[in-house]
């Protein structure tokens, strides 16, 4: 059985001469949370809209549940939240869900369940217009969950939320994932997405720049060294690594040596620095933050 719920092959959308989405190939596997990441205007929404049959591609192919995007069967098995759901402000959260449920041929119980799933039951009888943005977004996810779709497509579900709203959306997505729900979500906020995405795809200027796990994306671990005198420390560090070392100021303006940490024997390095009469102030080995990697990737384009 094909484990890809979504796959695209060189999917393209041109508006006039402008390719909004340029030969994007991606795959979302069953049961994973896939983060579709990229700066504003990168082509995320256009791609997601193509996956829902809302925008017609000008090139390439896409399949959702092995079916044509937008076909009735594909849509029945897909829940989505794109560009804010249209809710009635004067109806309660629950009434809104019931309206949508009825429209889709589902029962009141489905609406109750969906509300429960996003932990809004206690506010279910309050009017929608009194909800915070975070609650509105969670109600949007509840609407997407109606009918228990195999796949959830969420466009920027944390956009505009305050830290508490973000945390609550994050834990909701995490708990859906724990239940085995496949989620494809877009975001331009890398740092918060890296915490719960199994894999990510990065799109920049309409083109796919990367697809894989977060740890692969971050790549190798980085050794950072503060020492004095720095030129002598640089010489020792270069001798200890195969791939050389760099000198730059860190965010506090301190001269910092960095190098690929792979294969470096840290205790031996420190012994050698001391033997060369270098004062070692600190040595650390860290993964690069996703933000750093992302910036490098978008700047390189
Ligand atoms: N209907 C349209 N007609 C012309 N250009 C469009 C249309 N829709 C999108 N675009 C352009 O396509 C590009 C990608 O837009 P898209 O909304 O997909 O990006 P995005 O990554 O979702 O950005 P954001 O995070 O700002 O929503 C942008 O340059 C946008 O101006």
Automatic annotation (TrEMBL):
Signal sequence residues: none
A Pfam family matched in the record: ABC_tran
Domain ABC transporter: 6-230
Keyword Nucleotide-binding recorded: yes
Keywords: ATP-binding, Nucleotide-binding, Transport
Residues annotated as transmembrane: none
Family: Belongs to the ABC transporter superfamily.
Protein's UniProt name: ATP-binding cassette domain-containing protein
Organism: Glycomyces buryatensis
Organism classification: Bacteria, Bacillati, Actinomycetota, Actinomycetes, Glycomycetales
């Amino acid at each position: 059985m094909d484990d890809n719920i979504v796959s695209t092959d060189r999917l393209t959308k041109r508006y006039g001469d402008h390719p909004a989405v340029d030969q994007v190939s991606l795959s979302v596997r069953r049961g994973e949370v896939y983060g579709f990441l990229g700066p504003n205007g990168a082509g995320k929404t256009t791609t997601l809209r193509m996956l829902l049959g809302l925008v017609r591609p000008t090139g390439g192919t896409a399949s959702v549940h092995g079916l044509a995007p937008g076909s009735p069967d594909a849509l029945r098995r897909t829940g989505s939240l794109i560009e804010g759901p249209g809710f009635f402000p004067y109806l309660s959260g629950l009434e809104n869900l019931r309206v949508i449920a009825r429209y889709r041929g589902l029962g009141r119980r489905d609406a109750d369940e969906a509300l429960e799933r996003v932990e809004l039951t206690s506010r279910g009888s309050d009017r929608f217009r009194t909800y915070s943005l975070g609650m509105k977004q969670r109600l949007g996810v509840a609407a997407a969950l109606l009918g228990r779709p195999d796949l959830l497509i969420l466009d920027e579900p944390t956009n505009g939320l305050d830290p508490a709203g973000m945390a609550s959306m994050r834990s909701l997505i995490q708990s859906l994932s724990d239940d085995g729900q496949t989620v494809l979500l877009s975001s331009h906020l890398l740092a918060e997405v890296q915490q719960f995405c199994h894999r990510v795809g990065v799109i920049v200027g309409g083109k796919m720049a990367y697809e894989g796990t977060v740890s692969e994306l971050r790549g190798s671990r980085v050794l950072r060294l503060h020492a004095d005198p720095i030129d002598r420390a640089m010489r020792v560090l270069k001798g200890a690594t195969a791939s050389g070392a760099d000198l730059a100021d860190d965010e506090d303006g301190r001269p910092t040596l960095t190098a690929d940490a792979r294969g470096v024997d840290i205790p031996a390095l420190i012994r050698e620095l001391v033997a060369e009469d270098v004062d070692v102030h600190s040595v650390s080995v860290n993964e690069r933050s996703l933000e750093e990697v992302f910036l490098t990737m978008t700047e390189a384009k």
